[in-house]
Design goal:
10 helices, Beta-Lactamase, 5-stranded mixed beta sheet, 12 strands, alpha+beta, Heat Shock Protein 90, 18% strand, 3 domains, Helix Hairpins, 453 residues
Length: 453
């Protein structure tokens, strides 16, 4: 990554340098041409005044002398070359200027022109400006002031050297900065990559960079949450397997023990045989119920669950749920009562509603100690039907309520952690919800809320 950043910086610097050099070359050319125009205008004015001074006197034509012109002094002062191109107004006499006979200079038009040429005997190209000289209104020639193009290029070369020096220093600084920034970005990415490898190997206890900048820090934070959830899911699955294994092994052990006793003739009297058969039937029903819960949860998770739409008499349904647990309440001396303040008939899936209420009652009986109290209630308010199950169990602390409806989590002994998870998913599928209120040491209340229409 540092190399990529440096490559981008170098490329940008090269493009910028090329553009800057080209712009400066054009600027230097225009500036040199402007200087040559000023010099050519001034020298041509001096030369014109000198010619007019000779022509305006009373001298005869044969006594007129070409003005002596300090060409060498002017060339030393300006650093440029001075030429004359045109008609000599003083035949037979030298003007003191270098003579050019360039057909490319259109001095007869009386206009200043900029051009490039190679003077006689020279090896370099010159940039030149020709300024016309007129005698009266008639142009007779032009003063040509020329500068070597290498002088202009020397300015560009000096600029290029300075840009190269500044670019080298800037590259060093940019390289150090790019290395520092890239390391700050790359190091967290490498740590995340190593953490991902550990997660792929099944090790969810990984450390992620917590001080990474910007989006990398956000990604690291979410990755840490993901690893934590994966670890929690693995622990839940492990607990579920252990719980289910225990739940399956207990009835299977009882069934196998009674079957062996019956087969070997250990139980021979009719009453004992009947008791063994009843135990076998009860344990088989317990196995069936456990397997059914697992299948229901799998269907709900896979969204392969069908909801029936039928008229459901909620009073009868609550009474049926109440009777299902009446014998257990009597056996454990639990004060078990039902209170009905409304008799709504709704359109829903009656079997699934009964399953939800049954799961809530099962959870309440599991949490309530012998001699406690459980209340089952039915009421209607604000367009909703409420089926409440209230117990006098130990209550649920606030920090444990969030995970109460997660699958494979059991808050009491003898449960598989599937009942409340199934109840919540079923209530959602029926368009309702489950509300929980609890006070530690005094019990809990679960409300199944279903739409009345």
């Amino acid at each position: 990554m540092p190399l990529l950043v440096l490559a981008g910086i170098v490329l940008a610097a090269l493009v910028t340098t090329v553009i800057a050099v080209q712009l400066f070359r054009d600027f230097a050319h225009d500036q040199a041409a402007s200087e040559l125009r000023r010099e050519a205008a001034g020298i041509s004015a001096l030369y014109t005044d000198a010619i007019l001074a000779e022509f305006n006197t009373s001298k005869r034509a044969d006594s007129r002398r070409a003005p002596t012109f300090a060409r060498e002094t002017l060339e030393q002062t300006t650093g440029d070359r001075i030429y004359w191109d045109g008609v000599n107004p003083f035949p037979g006499e030298k003007s003191g200027l270098r003579q050019l006979n360039l057909k490319t200079i259109d001095w007869s038009s009386g206009k200043t022109s900029v051009f490039e040429f190679t003077p006689p005997g020279a090896k370099h190209t010159f940039l030149a400006v020709a300024h016309p000289v007129a005698l009266g209104t008639r142009p007779i020639g032009a003063i040509v002031v020329a500068k070597r193009k290498t002088d202009v290029n020397d300015r560009v070369l000096a600029l290029l050297q300075r840009l190269a020096l500044a670019g080298a220093l800037g590259l060093v600084v940019a390289g150090a900065l790019a290395f520092y920034v890239s390391r700050r970005v790359v190091r967290p990415v490498l740590e995340l990559s190593e953490a991902a490898d550990e997660v792929a190997r099944g090790n969810y206890d990984v450390s992620v960079p917590l001080r990474a900048p910007g989006e990398i820090g956000h990604l690291a934070e979410r990755f840490g949450e993901m690893a934590g959830r994966l670890a929690e899911a693995e622990a839940l699955e492990r607990n579920f397997l252990m719980s289910v294994s225990h739940e399956l092994r207990t009835p299977l052990t009882a069934i196998r023990g009674h079957v062996s006793a019956l087969r070997e003739g250990v139980v021979d009297d009719p009453e004992s045989r009947q008791q063994s058969l009843e135990v076998i039937e009860a344990e088989a029903q317990r196995l069936e119920r456990l397997v059914g819960d697992i299948l229901d949860l799998a269907k709900l998770d896979a969204r392969r669950f069908t909801v029936m739409h039928e008229e459901v008499d909620m009073e009868q349904l609550v009474e049926l749920a109440y009777q299902t647990f009446a014998e257990e309440a009597r056996r454990r001396s639990i004060d078990y009562r039902v209170g009905v303040t409304a008799r709504p008939v709704i359109v829903s899936d009656g079997d699934r509603v009964l399953q939800i209420v049954g799961n809530l009652l099962s959870n309440a009986f599991r949490a309530t100690p012998d001699g406690g109290a459980i209340r089952l209630g039915l009421e209607q308010s604000n367009g909703a039907v409420h089926v409440s199950v209230e117990d006098t169990g130990p209550g649920i602390p606030p920090e444990r309520r969030e995970r109460l409806f997660r699958a494979f989590v059991s808050e009491g002994a003898g449960g598989t952690g599937l009942g409340l998870a199934i109840a919540k998913e079923l209530s959602t599928a029926l368009g309702g919800r489950i509300e929980v209120s609890s006070e530690v040491g005094r019990g809990s209340r679960f409300d199944l809320v279903l739409p009345a229409t």
